[in-house]
Design brief:
The chain is an alpha+beta fold. It contains seven helices and nine strands. The protein has three domains: 61 residues, Cadherins (Immunoglobulin-like); 103 residues, 2-Layer Sandwich (Alpha-Beta Plaits), CATH 3.30.70.3310; 41 residues. The strands form three sheets. Strands 7-8-6-9 form a four-stranded antiparallel β-sheet. The N and C termini lie far apart (137 Å). This is FAT4 protein.
């Protein structure tokens, strides 16, 4: 809006459309996804721009957003030696510098820190920024091409970002982002689970083997005891006729 003062100050909003799935930055007009997991297709968003003058003027346009179910393999990680809170506040300026130096349309997909704790996040001077670039034909630029251009323009990019952050900046190409659902912690947990399961199986096998041996030797002891008892003049043993022997001793033994 070419007006000055409040008449030139625009604020953006979503008038109609999937406001549960999308949100908009009221100052910049940048549209964000809120919750589109598992959803595909085209969404039609009605965006309104309004100035803040006495006679408030507005204009509207429709933005079509196509959500693809496939994940991109052309996401590139850029590591900045800045606190995550600072990078988040300056994300629009960071995107503008990257577009200017790379010559492509650049979108910042995610800004995060390795530290999950809030206090650690605020004290860690390293922030990872995931970006994706599109050429003039709106096609994704291959990740390797983006990495190569980032390395070639490293000095110019860092100089541009120094103006944004008012501090010396180091911008390095990071390793490819890990696939969703498979962080190092998850891999370690899986390995530990396998080891514990193997230990449990081995322990159960040992217990079963021990019980089996105990039963075997118990039966052998019982057989030995029975054999010993059969060799003794057991007054309760059966005679040949199947009846119990008398408890009385023979008369000749009394004599």
């Amino acid at each position: 809006d070419p007006d000055s003062g409040d008449n030139g100050h625009l604020q953006y909003s979503l008038v109609r459309g999937q406001t549960n799935e999308f949100d908009i930055n009221e100052n910049t007009g940048q549209i964000f996804t809120v919750s589109v997991a598992g959803k595909t297709g085209t969404f039609y968003l009605e965006v309104q721009a309004a100035d803040q003058g006495t006679r408030r003027l507005t204009a509207q346009t429709t933005v079509n957003v196509t959500v693809d179910s496939s994940s991109s393999s052309n996401i590139v990680m850029l590591v900045l030696n800045q606190k995550i809170s600072v990078v988040e506040r300056k994300s629009v300026e960071v995107q503008r510098v990257l577009e200017e130096k790379l010559g492509w349309n650049v979108y910042v997909l995610n800004i995060y820190s390795k530290e999950s704790d809030r206090n650690s996040r605020s004290s860690t001077d390293e922030t990872q920024v995931n970006i994706i670039a599109f050429d003039e034909a709106h096609q994704e630029v291959p990740a390797e091409d983006v990495k190569r251009k980032l390395r070639e323009q490293k000095a110019d990019i860092e100089l541009g970002l120094e103006k944004v952050f008012s501090a010396p900046v180091s911008a390095a190409v990071g390793e490819a982002a890990a696939a969703p659902g498979s962080p190092p912690e998850l891999t370690a947990a899986i390995v530990l689970g396998v080891l514990l399961a193997g230990t449990l199986v081995a322990f159960l096998a040992y217990v079963l083997l021990h019980l089996k041996r105990k039963r075997k030797y118990g039966k052998q002891d019982l057989v030995k005891k029975v054999e010993i008892m059969e060799g003794i003049d057991n007054p309760w043993a059966d005679d040949k006729n199947g009846s119990l022997k008398s408890l009385e001793k023979p008369e000749q033994m009394n004599n």
